[in-house]
């Protein structure tokens, strides 16, 4: 189980004890607000944008790769973790209260950049009009190499994982909010094969996992949340215990254990750069797993689902991904507009022209009125 982190009042330079090197690492920053802030339900996108802007300032080539690379992303970002309050259906950060924000790197270039950045952290994390003071940092997951994970994989046949933020998989155009072993390991294997230089044969490995890795116990809860550019995600949080059958060849069981040790670094499922899929080793206490969720965020996610179903049903040709994408886009714009967000903010988040978003909002509103008048 991951031990609790302890921060002092020292500045960011207090974290200089991290030895340089490694092919993966995880760090966590302690931040605080000097006054009370009400967070936008989509604030994870702001954390993502701020992180990439920090990379761009010092390493433009790496920034371009993180922005545009078509492979797996070699980093993950958590959402803010701490004692949120709720006011008017929104998460509120109380003043002078420590919160944590975690970052992992999955290849040497990102790890090296994190090492240098951690030695000269900015004083503030600028989060959409809610500046947070950076008070310090600590190593969350120690620097390791992929060969170390493989060579030092524990021999035990069972392991527990805790999913401390909503976790989901893409499955046939939908979200799969269940930790099916084959999906879990496919998620880890994609990152491993992209970054390790020690490829594992995908089909053979996953066939064995499907037959011989089982869930021994679980404690899970399904949740809806907003993530990324548009739409909502149905995910799960909680804990599971996995076991690999002794019938698996020794090398494959070693690979299973290595990937489980890799899980906290790479996260689980999709949208791990927007705070989803945060994973820890061990069976964590319920209060450490159930991350605070703003009721407004859940309401927006539910409203997006409701509206997208409505818009899709109104289209004469319901088949195909284009119809589904349009329905989700209209639903996202209208649901966020109904929650009080400006069209300017929505357009910026969705990276769309303002006039297009304005037109879609009108069309979506008209579609709901037509439905209500029927």
Distance between the termini: 56 Å
Provide the number of structural domains: 3
Tally of DSSP helical segments: 12
What name is given to the CATH topology of the largest domain?
A: Alpha-Beta Plaits
Tell me the Rg in angstroms: 21 Å
Give an overview in words:
With 374 residues, this protein is an alpha+beta fold. The chain folds into 3 domains: 12-144, Alpha-Beta Plaits, CATH 3.30.70.1890; 147-289, Alpha-Beta Plaits, CATH 3.30.70.1900; 295-368, Arc Repressor Mutant, subunit A (Orthogonal Bundle), CATH 1.10.10. The chain has 12 helices and 14 strands. The chain has helices at 43-58, 60-68, 108-118, 146-151, 181-195, 202-212, 250-266, 286-289, 295-314, 321-338, 343-350, 354-373; strands at residues 24-32, 37-38, 75-77, 85-87, 90-93, 99-105, 124-125, 132-144, 158-167, 169-171, 174-176, 213-226, 232-244, 279-281. It has a 5-stranded antiparallel sheet with strand order 3-6-1-8-7, with helices on both faces. It has a 4-stranded antiparallel sheet with strand order 12-13-9-14. Strands 2-5-4 form a 3-stranded antiparallel sheet. A hairpin with a 5-residue loop joins strand 12 (213-226) and strand 13. Helix 1 (43-58) runs antiparallel to helix 2 (60-68) and helix 5 (181-195) packs across helix 7 (250-266). The radius of gyration is 21 Å and the shape is globular.
Lay out the secondary structure.
Elements: E1 24-32, E2 37-38, H1 43-58, H2 60-68, E3 75-77, E4 85-87, E5 90-93, E6 99-105, H3 108-118, E7 124-125, E8 132-144, H4 146-151, E9 158-167, E10 169-171, E11 174-176, H5 181-195, H6 202-212, E12 213-226, E13 232-244, H7 250-266, E14 279-281, H8 286-289, H9 295-314, H10 321-338, H11 343-350, H12 354-373
Helix pairs in contact: 1-2, 5-6, 5-7, 9-10, 9-12, 10-12, 11-12
